[in-house]
Specification:
461 residues, pyridoxal phosphate binding, 5-stranded parallel β-sheet, 19 helices, single chain, pyridoxal phosphate, Rossmann fold, alpha/beta, Thr_synth_N, binds pyridoxal-5'-phosphate, amino-acid biosynthesis
Length: 461
């Protein structure tokens, strides 16, 4: 399996190198040169299988010769062994034809663990084989950072640097990043918002001298390995509800577009995904882009669903690459226009996007009302991100079963949930002492050279 950059000017790579590299050297994102189809019979056979079996079957064709079957199977088993539910991604019914896909049973209580736990194992395997070490760096709006730290803490071949926007993550999110005691864990609070953090990380990667000097690697959702791991639960959920004999719709709380794009990949592999609905909070650039064809960032407003407080949605570039028929030159042009303020999507590409994606948004009031109503009507406590999506799903009634992705545990956002319902969701017992552990964090300005100096100084030599 070969991977190409969405911007067409970076070398083609196999799975292992695409995963270890993260952002392509031309600033683009790696995508598979072609997507393998799973025949309907093989999809049907996934129904009722353990999650690990589904994961192996769905991901195997993308991995090529990076891992032999036994190794890959062992990595998958290890990735999900620490999850707090035997189904890993259980479905729960909200209404007659509406289901929640609970993706928060991993160690940091958000869906990011599905990909990050697997990436952690795959990185360790490859680095061990090569005798190399790396600096993993990532920008986070809250959940990626803790998931990355949880995946790499104590790994002797990796330093993990996580940049989060100072004062803009929940206390549970912050403590999950600042309390691990391992010396290879480095939490960095940046003066700015998520886009500031993401721009700093991209700038560090685009400084090729620095990138090579400290062996930078990215595990943001731009990393193809992460998108791939997220394709699996679309298959697990849809087959549980009757696919391939039945079409299933999905609504996805969206920020950086990685999760919902994984649904697009599942569809291209042959899973009968009907509508794929992009749910945004009031930072609704994706909803506006899909509605009007104009993609123009206009600043981030903080919300109670902070992991979706994003205006530059990196993985959207992958969807654009497909919508423009793989025309890397067109993607390069759009991204150049983006750096000047925004771009318009061509009529043909917009139509192609709308064949796959629908969209909607929820205001803060609608989000809180949805949390309150869902507790009252269905007895379920939703995290604010999930509530955004439940609101949008309810605004898109249809005949196919609707699966809304529940991306975080409500206890990760206790203040917002308590404000909406009067109920303060408790942390699962295994995380009960989070508030007692000492914190360790470095604060830096929006300044690439300060970040680079910090990495040089604190990484293990
Ligand atoms: C990261 C995150 C999202 C957004 O996912 P993307 O893949 O960035 O679109 C939504 N909800 C929660 C809880 C998250 O952590």
């Amino acid at each position: 399996m070969r991977y190409v950059s969405t911007r067409g000017e970076a070398p083609e790579l196999g799975f292992e190198d695409a995963m270890m590299t993260g952002l392509a050297r031309d600033g683009g994102l790696y995508v598979p040169a072609e997507v393998p189809a799973l025949p309907p019979g093989e999809i049907a056979a996934l129904a009722g299988r353990p999650y690990e079996d589904v994961a192996f079957c769905v991901m195997r064709p993308f991995v090529g010769d990076a891992f032999d079957d036994a190794t890959f199977r062992r990595l998958i088993d290890a990735a999900y062994a620490g999850f707090g539910h035997p189904a890993r991604a259980p479905l729960r019914q909200l209404a007659p034809n509406h289901f929640l896909l609970e993706l928060f049973h991993g160690p940091t209580l958000a869906f990011k663990d599905f990909a990050m736990q697997l990436i952690g194992g795959m990185f360790a395997e490859v680095l061990g084989r090569r005798g190399d070490r790396l600096c993993v760096i990532g920008a986070t709006s809250g959940d990626t950072g803790s998931a990355a730290i949880e995946a790499f803490r104590g790994n002797p071949a990796v330093d993990v640097f996580v940049l989060y926007p100072h004062g803009r993550v929940s206390e549970v999110q912050r403590r999950q990043m600042t309390t691990p005691g391992e010396t290879n864990v480095h939490a960095i609070a940046v003066d700015g918002d998520f886009d500031t953090c993401q721009a700093l990380v991209k700038a560090a990667f685009n400084d090729h001298g620095f990138r090579d000097e400290v062996a930078l690697a990215g595990v943001n959702s731009i990393n193809w390995g992460r998108v791939l791991a997220q394709v699996v639960y679309y298959f697990a959920a849809a087959t549980a509800l009757g696919a391939p004999g039945r079409t299933v719709d999905f609504t996805v709380p969206t920020g950086n577009f990685g999760d919902v794009f994984a649904g697009h990949v599942a569809k291209r592999m042959g899973l009968p995904v009907g509508r794929l609905i992009v749910a945004t909070n009031r930072n609704d650039i994706l909803h506006r882009a899909l509605t009007t064809g104009e993609y123009r960032p206009d600043g981030v407003a903080p919300t109670i669903s902070p992991s979706m407080d994003i205006q530059v949605s990196s993985n959207f570039e992958r969807a654009l690459h497909l919508a423009y028929g793989g025309d890397a030159r067109a993607v390069r042009q759009l991204m150049a226009e983006l750096s000047q303020g925004g771009f318009g999507i061509s009529q043909g590409a917009l139509q192609a996007l709308r064949e796959v994606y629908a969209s909607g948004r929820a205001s803060e009031e609608e989000t809180k009302a949805t949390i309150a109503r869902t507790l009252r009507d269905a007895g379920e406590l939703l995290c604010p991100h999930t509530a955004v999506a439940v609101h949008v799903a309810e605004a898109h009634p249809g005949d196919a079963p609707m699966v809304t992705l529940a991306t975080a545990h409500p206890a990760k956002f206790p203040d917002a949930v308590e404000e909406a319902t009067g109920v303060r969701p408790p942390l699962p017992p295994r995380m009960g002492d989070l508030y007692d552990r000492p914190e360790r964090v470095t604060r830096i300005a929006d300044d690439l050279s300060a970040l680079q100096a910090h990495i040089r100084k604190t990484r293990a030599t």
